[in-house]
Design a protein that fits this description.
By secondary structure, this protein is of the alpha/beta class. The chain contains 15 helices and nine strands. The structure holds zinc ion (ZN).
């Protein structure tokens, strides 16, 4: 079974993905798996919308905004490092590189995309992340480096974003434009056109990039790039996205300059591993728990019934442990847990439930089914069959049942019947 090619974009802040938004949308439509790692939640930045965020909830607002942008672009998976906004350069370098190595080995991308050496504009986070990703790109393929970060994986290419000199010439405003950061005014850097390695001609995907940008409401600076650049320049930049090849294990084929994945095909990347019994079980279970955790998270934010929200938040915490163990089980049999997406059907079912009572009943029934499923797993599949996992799920179930009982005792009568 071939796995699809994967592009992993690693950027510092929510909205940094926009600069390659049309390209990612194009590849997503081509069936390429696209994953975004966003290093920070952008929590230290200026808020540019009236009342859409406060300094206290900015991280949450930007999280939602980036989720919205990913949905428009078609990014399949979004991962957060929760590194400090504005503080990437002060992180201890070794552990930061190790963390990227671990993600790359889990996600197994063919191509990685990140900030250029000069940052595009010299935001200290962009400059630091470039250094970290470049170091990680070298280290990932060497099993002796960061052995605790998973089995070695060799991505074929590392690309960085670029703005060609020619666009600065047709758009004088761009040359004058400055990004304001903590009182400093940072210029965009141009790259001579002949040094650009890949131009993605992605005009049909421009609207997807524009829609993604519209999600980042808290960043819509009236003096910012999008508000002040002529529409033609913005469209031109979205229709033709430029990249530099920063490092390569598989060079671009001669004469090809319009495809980041040129010359890489699925068979290069393929595991060619038949999905065996335990793998399929583990994958399905992981997909299920990822969806279930997302449902718990959503219920946990529900203000209507604090007791239910509280139990959902506790279930969410327990789910993290379950997901961790299932992912580890997959890794033990040489499979990537990163490729497993959350079960969309389950998630849809869970999110259709409206009232606190329905939420509780849904949680209770699903947990009971999960425990029953795990008990039927063949005992011979050692990494798969994990009785402590069943115990964990049973404990979750007991919590839900206790809350149901408590609510019923507090409000006896027909209306208080739960489920
Ligand atoms: Zn940024």
């Amino acid at each position: 079974m071939n796995r699809p090619l994967t592009i992993l974009a690693i950027f510092a802040h929510p909205d940094d993905e926009i600069g390659s938004g049309s390209t990612l949308a194009y590849y997503s439509d081509q069936g390429v798996r696209t994953v975004l790692i966003c290093a920070t939640r952008g929590e230290a930045a200026t808020i540019f919308c009236d009342g859409c965020a406060t300094p206290e909830n900015l991280a949450q607002v930007r999280t939602r905004e980036l989720e919205c942008a990913c949905a428009h672009i078609g990014i399949h998976e979004l991962r957060w490092l929760d590194w400090p906004d504005g503080g990437i350069g002060s992180l201890p370098r070794g552990p930061a590189v190790a963390e990227i190595v671990r993600y790359v080995r889990e996600l197994r991308p063919d191509v990685i995309l990140t900030h250029p050496e000069h940052g595009l504009y010299p935001h200290p986070d962009h400059l630091a992340l470039w250094e970290i990703v470049r170091e990680a790109f070298s280290a990932v393929a060497d099993p002796e480096e960061h052995p605790a970060a998973g089995p070695a994986w060799a991505p074929a290419r590392l690309f960085t974003r670029a703005l060609p000199q020619s666009i600065f010439e047709v758009a004088p405003g761009l040359k004058e434009f400055r990004v304001e950061l903590n009182g400093q005014l940072l210029p965009f850097y141009a790259t001579p056109d002949h040094e650009i390695d890949v131009i993605m001609r992605v005009e049909p995907w421009v609207e997807r990039r524009m829609a993604a940008w519209a999600c980042h409401r808290s960043q819509h600076n009236p003096k910012g790039f999008s508000a002040t650049m002529p529409d033609g320049v913005r469209r031109e930049m979205a229709a033709n996205e430029h990249f530099l090849l920063a490092a390569a294990r598989v060079p671009l084929p001669d004469g090809v300059s319009d495809d980041l994945l040129a010359g890489l095909d699925q068979s290069d990347a393929a595991d060619d591993v038949e999905v065996a019994g335990p793998t399929a079980l583990l994958r399905d279970e992981l997909a299920w728990h990822r969806a279930f955790a997302e449902i718990c998270e959503r219920y946990g934010a529900d203000q209507a019934e604090p007791r239910v929200a509280e139990v959902a938040r506790r279930l969410f915490d327990a789910e993290q442990e379950i997901i961790h163990r299932l992912a580890r089980g997959l890794r033990l049999i040489g499979e990537s847990a990163g490729a497993v997406e959350s079960d969309a059907r389950l998630k849809a079912q869970g999110l259709q439930r409206q009232s606190p009572a329905e939420h509780l009943a849904f949680l209770r029934d699903q947990i009971a089914q999960a425990a029953a499923r795990l008990r039927t797993w063949p005992a011979a599949d050692a990494p798969v069959r994990d009785d402590s996992l069943i115990a964990l799920i049973e404990a979750q179930r007991a919590q839900v049942v206790a809350v149901e009982q408590e609510l019923q005792d507090a409000h006896p009568g027909p209306d208080a019947r739960i489920g």
